[in-house]
Amino acid sequence: MLTIKAVTVVLAAVLAGITAETASPASTHSVASWQMEGVLETASGKGLIPGIRQIQTQNRQALADATKRCNPQKRWARRQFKNGAGMVLWKYSLQVYYCVRNGRVTYFRYIRWAEVNSVTPFVEWKPWEFMGHTGENVMRGLSRRSVWTQGHFQVCLVANVLLCNNQYPQLSITVNGDGTWGAWTKG
Fold first, then answer.
1. According to the model, what pLDDT value does residue 68 have?
2. What pLDDT sits at residue 57?
3. What is the mean pLDDT of the chain?
4. What backbone phi and psi angles, to 5 degrees, belong to 102?
């Protein structure tokens, strides 16, 4: 017979986007026995990234710096995870501002950030936690610049140590002096 506590743990796991294949009671950090149950989505585009209001101060400063030098182009990339019910549990985003002139990239600035959403509408409950940025690389050349970043998200069923699922989304944007650009995400 299922207890209320057991039902609560199962419901919490489903909302958090994880399910058990086989739980190993001997392991305290069992990642292999837990998997994500949901959808990873990728998007990129021109202009300001949707939802950028959450970092308004950084965004305003970046745009102010750019417009002193040129008319900046804006590009973005995002990786997000939805649970089986279609709720967005976390987003990892990258926004780039750049200018080009005479085949050269004359200005390049980026902002990266993470968002973790509550899975309940009335009570603030965020089972996923953003553990921080784990990697970054910026390549600067006269005719091409790019940025790559990686973040770390984690969800655990018990006290951040037991039955954890870790995700490491990666984002990259490259801009060229001729005005072309590209973006990719993975993880």
1. 73
2. 60
3. 76
4. 55, 45
Which residue in 177, 169, 155 sits closest to 14, CA to CA? 155
Q: Is 183 exposed, middle or buried (0-12, 13-18, 19+ CB in 10 A)?
A: buried
Q: Which of 38, 44, 37 is nearest to 171 (CA)?
A: 44
| 28 or 52, which is more confident | 52
- pTM of the entire predicted model: 0.73
Structural contact between residues 149 and 170, judged by C-beta atoms closer than 8 angstroms: yes
Residue that has been written with the tokens 């392991």 in this structure: 27
Q: How far apart are CA 183 and CA 48, in angstroms?
A: 15
Q: Give the whole-angstrom CA distance, residue 164 versus residue 157.
A: 7
Torsion angles phi and psi, residue 119, rounded to 5? -100, 0
Q: What are phi and psi of 101, to 5 degrees?
A: -155, 130
Give the closest residue to 154 by CA, choosing from 59, 36, 33, 62. 36
On whether the CB atoms of residues 16 and 127 are closer than 8 A, the answer is yes
**Looking at the predicted structure, is the pLDDT value of residue 24 above 60?**
no
Contacts of 80 (CB under 8 A, 6+ apart): 40, 41, 43, 88, 90, 91, 92
34 vs 21: CA distance, rounded Å? 6
Count of other CB atoms within 10 angstroms of residue 89: 24
Q: Which residue has the higher pLDDT, 19 or 181?
A: 181
Widest Cα–Cα separation across the chain: 72
